[in-house]
From TrEMBL:
Annotated positions binding (6S)-NADPHX: 58-62, 130-136, 159, 262, 324, 375, 439
Cofactor note: Binds 1 potassium ion per subunit.
SUPFAM superfamilies: Ribokinase-like (SSF53613), YjeF N-terminal domain-like (SSF64153)
Name the record gives this protein: Bifunctional NAD(P)H-hydrate repair enzyme
YjeF N-terminal domain sequence ranges: 9-217
Family membership: Belongs to the NnrE/AIBP family.
Matches recorded under NCBIfam families: yjeF_cterm (TIGR00196), yjeF_nterm (TIGR00197)
Keywords carried by this UniProt record: ATP-binding, Isomerase, Lyase, Metal-binding, Multifunctional enzyme, NAD, NADP, Nucleotide-binding, Potassium
Residue ranges annotated for the YjeF C-terminal domain, each copy included: 227-498
Residues that, per the record, bind K(+): 59, 126, 162
Record gene name: nnrE
Reactions catalysed, as given in the entry: (6S)-NADHX + ADP = AMP + phosphate + NADH + H(+); (6R)-NADPHX = (6S)-NADPHX; (6S)-NADPHX + ADP = AMP + phosphate + NADPH + H(+); (6R)-NADHX = (6S)-NADHX
Organism of derivation: Maribacter cobaltidurans
InterPro entries named among the record's database cross-references: Carbohydrate_kinase_pred_CS (IPR017953), CARKD (IPR000631), Nnr (IPR030677), Ribokinase-like (IPR029056), YjeF_N_dom (IPR004443), YjeF_N_dom_sf (IPR036652)
Length: 518
């Protein structure tokens, strides 16, 4: 699914009005009707007080139109107009008149008004600001927003939580609505998926308001959201007369005394994601551990307790390198010397990244489309400190362009970056914030490249599968007991799940499942 910028959404809006020959007020009515249906199906006329806080732009107009539908179906509503500006959008005014025609008189709030009473059992509809927010709200609006957040009432945000910008992180986080649920028109917004702003969106769902499909299809976006339908197209079926040689040979390099587990996890993950053969290149101290714990894997050794050189006679398809490797002088030198001569596709993780961060000149030896999989701290070592999430994305984009690498920014909603475009993952859960889960990801991606997936496909698909496997494992383990080995063991189910009944876009169901686990 594409993630459009605010400018693109306004363009889509315009294209829709022209192509479908409808007025903007009709489009607003579609949006309001969709929201009403969404609420009505769930509330079934329940006598809960619904407070609708509406701005004076089109987001406010959506809220006012929704209020009319709720009133007509007998809901107990209170409507407030938040007068943060003297301007009024036309469609807001049209809908305000319609509301007044029905003898509903909103409470007009300004900097002198008292804060309204809200009980924690009420529902708040947040239609104060939408994607048109372009400056920090006034102090009194911030106070109102904090008051709504403090009320503990369920907050349903229209399009985007008020106070969130679409292209930067707000300076004052008190000015942002903490939405329990966001009904986002047609497309999700990038800020739903970034750590600093995503926390304001507990759950979200897209409402189809019939924006021009041709425009949506043709328009290129800087970010895509990756779910099952996006990765299914990459899937490479196995053929009847294939043999293990058909599925490549993954070489996993790393490990040091006390950190043989890291390479063990990566190697096993490479195997379990379908690599025909897997060899692990480790110091001698890991030999028995590897051979005993994963008999399917071949082992090469070098150095006693850490790697001293990296050279081998075998001809692997791809190399995954760095897990538990250490950053000792000899090992660092071994990595640099290896990079100078290496021509194989690379997946670099952990200490390989830490060594490169200290020897940035060695980055030039990376083959094009090498995959780097840093966690936040490793990323900071590579690209330097960032001011906020948007600054981070800018820096990653520049880095990935400069070195022609694929960078996977790991975390909740892992983002894979290449050639200026970001692919945002939708699978995974906080249970995966556990030792070794990153090592597992490196193994999965390396295993996919071994089988013939392109580096980009392997990165995007690998991140998806890894997260999906974590989600499936979660159902049996709960958050706290999920460990990296559970992710490896769940990989089979993650592949099988690809061909289960199509996802009925179930962010909601997925969230419910995770809720049940809590
Ligand atoms: N295609 C779609 O998806 C559809 C979208 N629709 C809806 O439209 C919404 C966008 O509406 P919108 O453009 O009118 O902007 P909105 O967010 O209501 O802000 C209003 C104005 O406030 C101003 N302003 C900004 N910041 C401010 C501040 N801090 N303090 C004070 N004032 C401030 C600024 O005006 P300015 O003063 O800068 O001229 C701004 O224009 C969208 O989120 C969705 O709900 C649907 O109706 C149907 C189809
Ligand atoms: N809150 C979270 N939600 C989803 N995925 C997560 C979350 N926290 C961590 N992960 C995933 O777990 C992995 C952690 O990687 P990393 O920190 O490198 O672990 P390690 O170094 O222990 O192997 C990444 O793939 C990351 O995306
Ligand atoms: K809003």
């Amino acid at each position: 699914m594409k993630i459009f910028s605010a400018e693109q959404i306004y363009k889509a809006d315009k294209a829709t009005l022209e192509k479908q020959d409808i007025s903007s007020e009709e489009l607003m009515e579609r949006a309001a009707t969709q929201m009403f249906n969404w609420m009505h199906v769930r509330m079934q006329g329940a006598p809960v007080k619904i407070h609708l806080f509406c701005g004076i732009g089109n987001n406010g107009g959506d809220g006012i139109a929704l209020a009319r539908h709720l009133f007509e179906h007998g809901y107990d509503i209170a409507v407030y107009v938040v007068k943060y500006s003297d301007k009024r959008s036309n469609d807001f005014l049209v809908n305000l008149e319609r509301l007044k025609d029905r003898k509903i008189w909103p409470v007009f709030l300004d900097d002198k008004s008292d804060l309204p009473n809200i009980s924690q059992d009420d529902i708040i509809v947040d239609a104060v600001f939408g994607i048109g927010l372009n400056r920090t709200p006034d102090d009194w609006v911030t106070k109102l927003i904090s008051h709504l957040n403090d009320s503990k009432a369920f907050i349903l945000a229209v399009d985007i939580p008020s106070g969130l910008f679409t292209n930067c992180v707000p300076e004052n986080l008190d000015s942002v609505i903490k939405a329990n649920y966001v009904l986002s028109f047609q497309v999700p917004k990038l800020v739903f998926f970034l750590p600093q702003t995503g926390v304001f969106v507990e759950q979200w769902e897209v409402l189809d308001i019939g924006l021009d499909s041709e425009f949506l299809m043709k328009e290129e976006t800087e970010y895509d959201l990756i779910a099952k339908s996006e990765v299914l197209q990459f899937y490479r079926p196995r053929t009847k007369y294939s043999h293990k040689g058909t599925y490549g040979h993954a070489l996993i390099v790393g490990g040091s005394y006390g950190k043989i587990g890291a390479v063990t996890l990566s190697s096993k993950a490479a195997l379990k994601s379908g690599s025909g053969l897997v060899t692990t290149y480790i110091p001698e101290c890991g030999y028995q551990i590897l051979q005993t714990s994963v008999p399917e894997i071949m082992v090469l050794t070098n150095g006693k307790t850490s790697l001293e050189t990296i050279d081998f006679d075998i001809k692997p398809t791809v190399v995954g390198i760095g897990m538990g490797m250490g950053i000792g002088e000899r090992t660092a030198k071994a990595l640099t010397e290896f990079l100078k001569v290496n021509k194989l596709p690379l997946v670099l993780d952990a200490d390989a990244l830490n060594i490169l961060s200290k020897n940035k000149e060695s980055l030039k030896y990376l083959p094009e489309e090498s995959i780097l999989t840093p966690h936040p701290k490793e990323l900071e070592r590579l690209i330097g400190k960032w001011k906020d999430d948007f600054d981070k994305l800018k820096k990653v984009k520049a880095f990935s362009k400069k070195y022609k690498t694929i960078i996977i920014i790991k975390g909740a909603h892992t983002i894979t970056f290449y050639q200026g475009k970001g692919y945002i993952n939708t699978t995974g859960n906080p249970g995966m914030a556990t030792a070794g889960s990153g090592d597992t990801l490196t193994g999965v991606i390396t295993g996919l490249i071994a089988q013939g997936y392109t580096n980009m496909q392997a990165a995007i698909f690998g991140v998806y599968l890894h997260g999906k496997s974590g989600d499936l494992a979660l159902e049996k383990t709960g958050y706290q007991s999920l460990v990296a080995s559970d992710i490896i063991n769940g990989l089979g189910q993650a592949f099988i799940d690809l061909f289960k009944v199509p996802e009925q876009v179930s962010e909601q169901q997925e969230e419910d499942k995770k809720e049940n686990v809590k």
